[in-house]
Amino acid sequence: MQTVDPLGLGFDPERLARIDAFLADRYVASGKLPHTQLLIGRDDQVAHFSSNGRAREDGEAQVSGESLFRIASMTKPITSLAFMMLVEDAAVALDTPVHHVLPEFKKLGVYNGGGAGVPFMTRPTAEPMRMVDLLRHTAGLTYGFQNRSNVDAAYREKKLESWHGNLTLDEFVAALADIPLEFSPGEAWNYSVATDVLGAVIQRVAGMPLDEFFSTRIFQPLGMNDTFFQVPEEKVDRLTDCWTMAPGKGRILYDRGAASAWSRAPKLLSGGGGLVSTARDYHRFCRLCLHRGELDGVRLVGRKTIELMTMNHLPGKSDLSSMSRSLFSETQNGGTGFGLGFAVTDDVARSMIPGSPGEYYWGGMFSTAFFIDPVERITMVFMTQLSPSMLYPIRRELKTLIYSALV
């Protein structure tokens, strides 16, 4: 990875170097994380790129610029962009009712009792679920791991979040149609499988599989040659090991790079969390967003579309602290709105983290993260492979360290 003099990009070199030492000492040497990789860019140049730790448990090879990582929910912004490309094609709109494309959802109601062996009772939704609800997580859907309600218990019972399970996207949608919504669309925010449903919408509107749409409309034009749902056989040796923290056991191997589930064709193409990528590839996606839809002479969407995606779309311009019912997401709530696929910083003071108004970002369950600051024109991509992502405050720490290095 080619870097340039950080000072020429407005960063203090010594302060940037502190970040590498911080990651190496506090997280890798201590055993908290298996490895780390950090890319910090400004405009189109890379001010800092560093890697720490071994790529795999049973090898000596270190994480490098060629390493592949499971980016989980960092897939969501890419899926959201894909949908907005169809909006620009006039094939669908943000206010289109979801059941116009997915008729399975036409009779979905809101939970009104039942569960745990008792048939569900429902009431009608106050408003129909619209495409914008999928993009901003106000659809009334949930995740099974929220562990909060009889509705998410039904998700767990049906194993709806198994990326490499036995459901296709169409079967996934059909299974969801049998489970009530947690709330009427637009009434609250809840982190959910909504972006997976959006992937099913893309497939049906575009008339092609989601992976084919991503490849032909996004990855090939952008030169993101190392981003895919299934790692090609010739690239499996670059896929890092992935870990999880198990109660009473500590860190255990979740998915071995050499025999990864991500090296096999998934039945469910998860627009909410199925992609593998590199820091370099994801940085290209970030730069596309920073340049408002264009990169290296290739335009995927108009600048107004990126502007629309990165506005706060929560009803009444509220923030997550007032709208969220979620026990888990990839962000803090104070001062944070939500756009069309991204969290958006509305109030820097309330967020209590250095940053800029209008900064947008997200992360993944394996502790990966990115942010894009259109004011300072900074991009960051952070890679590691440990779930769950809320174990350590590393995202907050990284943002603080990066902004402290500005001169």
UniProtKB/TrEMBL annotation:
SUPFAM superfamilies in alphabetical order: beta-lactamase/transpeptidase-like
GO terms assigned for molecular function: hydrolase activity
Keyword annotations from UniProtKB, A to Z: Hydrolase
UniProt domain Beta-lactamase-related: residue ranges: 25-390
Pfam entry (one): Beta-lactamase
Protein name (Swiss-Prot/TrEMBL): Class A beta-lactamase-related serine hydrolase
Species of provenance: Sphingomonas aracearum
